[in-house]
Design the sequence.
């Protein structure tokens, strides 16, 4: 790594990869980014970085970078064109299709990796300018169930607490999260806390003994998709042993099934059916472990739950989120230091960029529903648009959007064109075989920094700038917005997304909607940011105090709610005795002052149900697809520390690409013996949707009958998404990536 002497200046920024939001300094020399180091003042990582963050600068000068606009020719090859030619083609085609097939025939598909200003701009352009809610983003594929869980239980999206709860927790309940590999710096904080306080209990609920599960005091192994039964069973044990916080329940919660409101006894009766012995038969989780987990969870003094894709990417992801919240609500384990129900985010700006700016088909900025007439009127007023501009009807969720994408000859496909920004759906959508023809046949415009499986299907490719080549804001899992300053110029003719958005707006006569049409990306970003925080003023999601000026000066960013320019940001929401929007208590606590012992909390429920959080009566339901005689194995996927998502960036950094260059399938020794498979054999894994070929790794990390594959491979024959299920949660419309039924066959030996 470059030393201070090797760089001319260090520029403050944020890591480009996971949702932890580690603060970095980018080392610049001779107009090039030559190093990255951790920001010691960052409240997320305190100067530490994982291998991906440290080496991110190597992505920037890779020879594969897209440097010029490209347009597909009649012979199928791409031709370099000028920006004017590319943008004129894009906007004339968009206009023609909209005129012919209606305003919703052209979709925008964004990403939790784009900057907040960029996502806000495209969202405003589509919903306010083009009057279409055909706006989606890849956070639908990873976080939508967490949004659904927070919205239905608390009435407001995103966690109440902060990462600082890790160091205050006395029990950590980690579910469906291989934190050690997906959020390595948060895992470092967890490990350090455990080393300093060996009495802290760590419970991991996970089908596979991951590297994270190896530090657990208690592992709850479960069959994929069965953990809802375990959570219900823990609730049953908590109630039976009277480990509940009655006063908290009475003052702060109500029991509901989403239709009626009941008393707490109804909930107690509901969970009674989930006795640990019965659940052991359903989930293969030992009853004794369930009992112990319930005891530790309820009686620790401060329990923090952390979860991620293992819980969210499910057909009952919202319910699973509700059930974790239930455990916190019935025990009062929320609203004080170390106690929270905290969903981790996978992408660096899924929270800040997409959830908070409302860049999904049913939302508007501030995570408010597009169907809400008051909020539409508010946005129209803020945006200077005539009343009735914003369509009250939500657009299509991601899976439906790609199902509906097709060519002009496809009568049953109403979406004829899409602008895809900073993501790779031709690799990352589940049940890929189903969606590739629509992307191929429609008019596809792809904005990215590298060629990908999606650019292969594009009609127009627009070369984009990397975060350190344009600057802007990312908002991480703990409601913290942090600014990256522009460090260097983008290569070739690559441009910031915000410039591209403004150019499209200008060509479509919508310059007034997006007036930040300028070459200086930081200035354009600042205008967009101010426009955005103005919309959130005086709301429960207020960012009004998070000005660009403050973000430039701050070394650690700011956490919303932040209502005024002198507000320090909010460490913990919902503390009683203070307006949850204006509370400073938790923030002060970080500096040694204590929250009063009477730490009861009030939930800000948007006036919907007397300020009480919902304890949900949810039935049990397993995964959509269960193993059977034809497809006898559970199939699940996960991450490795060195790789990230579809690998378009990490696979181009040699040091980390070679650490985990390809996928493999983990098979339990009992299953391997039955199928005569040895480590290194090539094995076909096949679901009802598609097949892949992986080298086998024989391990007892999971229970017999469960196969695991890391998801990052780029080789066609090893794209796990050919296998994965695209069935969606009916509440969040997030697909069930995490559970499928498959069969296996040995193809060849090493
Ligand atoms: Fe980047 Fe995440 Fe690693 Fe931090 S933990 S350096 S945010 S990839």
Sequence:
């Amino acid at each position: 790594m470059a030393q201070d002497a090797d760089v001319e200046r260090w520029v403050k920024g944020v890591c480009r990869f996971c949702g932890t939001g580690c603060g970095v300094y980018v080392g610049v020399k001779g107009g090039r980014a030559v190093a990255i180091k951790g920001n010691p003042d960052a409240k997320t990582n305190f100067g530490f970085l994982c291998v991906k963050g440290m080496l991110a600068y190597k992505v920037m000068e890779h020879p594969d970078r897209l440097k010029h606009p490209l347009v597909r020719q009649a012979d199928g090859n791409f031709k370099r064109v000028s920006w004017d030619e590319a943008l004129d083609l894009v906007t004339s085609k968009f206009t023609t299709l909209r005129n012919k097939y209606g305003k919703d025939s052209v979709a925008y598909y964004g990403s939790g990796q784009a900057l907040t200003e960029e996502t806000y701009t495209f969202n405003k352009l589509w919903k306010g300018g083009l009057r279409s809610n055909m706006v989606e983003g890849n956070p639908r594929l990873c976080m939508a169930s967490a949004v659904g869980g927070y919205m239905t239980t608390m009435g407001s999206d995103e966690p109440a607490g902060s990462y600082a709860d890790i160091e205050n927790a006395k029990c950590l309940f980690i579910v469906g999260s291989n934190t050690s590999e997906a959020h390595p710096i948060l895992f470092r904080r967890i490990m350090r806390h455990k080393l300093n306080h060996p009495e802290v209990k760590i419970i991991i609920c996970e089908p596979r003994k991951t590297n994270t599960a190896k530090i657990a005091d208690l592992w709850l192994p479960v069959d994929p998709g069965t953990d809802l039964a375990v959570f219900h069973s823990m609730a049953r044990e908590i109630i039976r042993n009277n480990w509940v916080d009655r006063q908290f329940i009475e003052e702060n919660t109500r029991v509901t099934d989403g239709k009626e409101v009941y008393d707490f006894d109804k909930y107690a009766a509901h969970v009674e059916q989930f006795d640990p012995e019965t659940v052991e038969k359903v989930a293969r989780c030992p009853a004794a472990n369930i009992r112990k987990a319930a005891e530790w969870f309820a009686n620790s003094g401060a329990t923090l739950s952390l979860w991620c894709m293992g819980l969210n990417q499910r057909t009952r992801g919202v319910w699973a989120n509700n059930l974790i919240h239930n455990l916190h609500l019935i025990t009062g384990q929320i609203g004080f230091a170390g106690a929270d129900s905290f969903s981790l985010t996978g992408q660096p700006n899924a929270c800040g960029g997409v959830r908070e700016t409302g860049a999904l088909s049913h939302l508007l900025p501030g995570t408010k529903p597009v169907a809400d007439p008051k909020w539409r009127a508010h946005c129209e007023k803020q945006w200077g648009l005539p009343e009735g501009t914003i369509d009250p009807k939500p657009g299509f969720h991601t899976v439906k959007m790609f199902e509906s994408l097709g060519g002009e000859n496809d009568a049953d496909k109403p979406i004829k064109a899409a602008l895809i920004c900073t993501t790779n759906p031709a690799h990352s959508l589940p049940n890929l075989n189903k969606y590739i023809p629509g992307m191929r046949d429609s008019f596809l415009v792809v904005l990215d920094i590298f060629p990908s499986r999606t650019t292969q299907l594009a009609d127009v490719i627009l070369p984009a700038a990397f975060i350190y080549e344009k600057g802007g804001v990312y908002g991480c899992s703990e409601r913290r917005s942090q600014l990256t300053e522009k460090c260097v110029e983008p290569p070739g003719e690559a441009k910031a997304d915000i410039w591209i958005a403004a150019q499209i707006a200008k060509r479509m006569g919508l310059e007034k909607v997006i007036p930040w049409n300028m070459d200086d990306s930081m200035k354009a970003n600042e205008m967009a940011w101010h426009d955005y925080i103005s919309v959130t003023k005086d709301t429960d999601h207020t960012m009004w105090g998070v000005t660009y000026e403050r973000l430039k000066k701050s070394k650690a960013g700011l956490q919303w709610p932040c209502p005024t320019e002198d507000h320090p940001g909010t460490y913990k929401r919902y503390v009683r005795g203070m307006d949850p929007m204006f509370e400073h208590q938790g923030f002060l606590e970080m500096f040694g002052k204590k929250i009063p012992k009477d730490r009861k909390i009030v939930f800000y429920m948007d006036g919907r149900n007397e300020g009480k959080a919902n304890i949900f009566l949810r039935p049990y339901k397993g995964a959509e697809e269960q193993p059977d005689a034809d497809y006898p194995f559970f199939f699940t996927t996960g991450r490795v520390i060195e790789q990230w998502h579809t690998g378009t960036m990490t696979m181009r950094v040699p040091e980390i690409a070679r650490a985990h260059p390809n996928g493999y399938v983990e098979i339990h020794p009992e299953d391997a013996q039955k199928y005569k498979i040895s480590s290194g054999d090539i094995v076909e894994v096949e679901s009802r949707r598609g097949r892949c070929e992986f080298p086998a790794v024989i391990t007892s990390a999971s229970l017999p009958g469960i196969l695991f594959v890391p998801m990052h491979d780029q080789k066609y024959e090893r794209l796990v998404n050919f296998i994965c299920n695209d069935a969606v949660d009916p509440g969040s419309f997030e697909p069930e990536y995490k559970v499928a039924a498959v069969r296996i066959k040995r193809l060849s030996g090493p």
Q: What stands out?
A: The chain has four domains: 4-60, 86-142+349-553, 144-344, 633-748. The two ends are 37 Å apart (CA to CA). Confidence is low (pLDDT under 50) at residues 577-597.
